[in-house]
Design a protein that fits this description.
Layout: E1 9-13, H1 16-33, E2 38-41, H2 48-61, E3 69-72, E4 74-77, H3 87-94, E5 106-107, H4 116-129, E6 135-138, E7 160-163, H5 166-172, E8 185-188, H6 191-195, E9 199-204, H7 210-218, E10 236-241
Helix pairs in contact: 1-2
Bound molecules: fructose -6-phosphate (F6R).
Fructose -6-phosphate (F6R) binds near residues 42, 45, 46 and 145.
Length: about 250
């Protein structure tokens, strides 16, 4: 399946710290332009320093988070919000506990209970009721996943429960004591959910992401590489460091 190919805006920074500052600047400018913005947020190693920079901007420059609403991309199934490796815990630890967000306006998909599909439908309803996502921050997996949409996820997919691939479990095991502790399932926004965001900001750093970034930007838009489906969106910005950008032609 190939779709329309839009040209993303690509910002190449000298190193991961500069890329983190660039991402934080873009998010801060968006919050300042629209204080009640609806932000889509990501977890993982990539955005940690960008969140640190946003915390600094809050403390030193008064960046105000009080009116915004946030929706995270995904959450593990099988570990609760109090688990240190849950994505809710991550967001509290790296951002929410250090800025003046309104707690009830922060949302992370709920992987608890017996009916995760009902939780997923409710999440979609909440995004819609908030007016849709204005700016969605994304990372990218080495296999091209965005959120936990693994290869094969259709462009029309919505928030749902999914089974993680061995590659993703392996990649995420660095955050757990052992690979056996990594959950095998997660709840994730779908590609269709993500593509409805008004703007998309994908951050990637390090040589390990260079091949997947090349395929996302220059490859066919195909579910076998979920990030390539972002070519169907006309407001995508990639913020990369030089290592992640080394295979792309700009
Ligand atoms: C995180 C997420 C994932 C990560 C991706 C990259 O909420 O949805 O798609 O963005 O796995 O992870 P890192 O940044 O750890 O390389």
């Amino acid at each position: 399946m190939t779709g329309n190919r839009n040209r993303p805006r690509i910002v190449i920074c000298p190193d991961p710290l500069a890329a983190s500052r660039e991402v934080a600047q873009i998010i801060a400018a968006a919050i300042e332009a629209k204080p009640d913005i609806v932000l889509g947020l990501a977890t993982g190693g990539t955005p940690v320093a960008a969140y640190r920079e946003l915390v600094r901007m809050h403390r030193e420059q008064g960046l105000d988070f009080s009116e915004l609403t946030s929706f995270n991309l995904d959450e593990y199934i099988g570990i609760g919000p109090e688990h240190p490796q849950s994505f809710r815990y991550f967001m509290q630890q790296h951002l929410f506990d250090h800025v003046n967000v309104t707690p009830s306006q922060t949302h992370v998909p709920d992987g608890r209970g017996t009916d995760v599909e009902a939780n997923a439908r409710r999440y979609e309803d909440e995004i819609r009721a908030a007016g849709g996502i204005d700016l969605q921050l994304l990372g990218i997996g080495t296999n091209g996943h965005i959120a936990f949409n693994e290869p094969g996820s259709p462009a029309s997919s919505r928030t749902r429960a999914i089974e993680l691939t061995t590659e993703t479990i392996q990649a995420n095991s660095r955050f757990f004591d052992s690979i056996d502790q990594v959950p095998k399932h997660a709840i994730t926004m779908g590609i269709g959910t993500i593509l409805e965001s008004k703007r998309i900001l994908l951050m990637a750093t390090g040589e390990g992401k260079a091949d997947t970034i090349e395929r996302a930007i220059h490859g066919d838009a195909d579910p076998s590489h979920p990030a390539s489906l972002l070519q169907r969106h006309d407001e995508v910005t990639y913020v990369l460091d030089e290592a992640a950008a080394k295979r792309i032609a700009v």
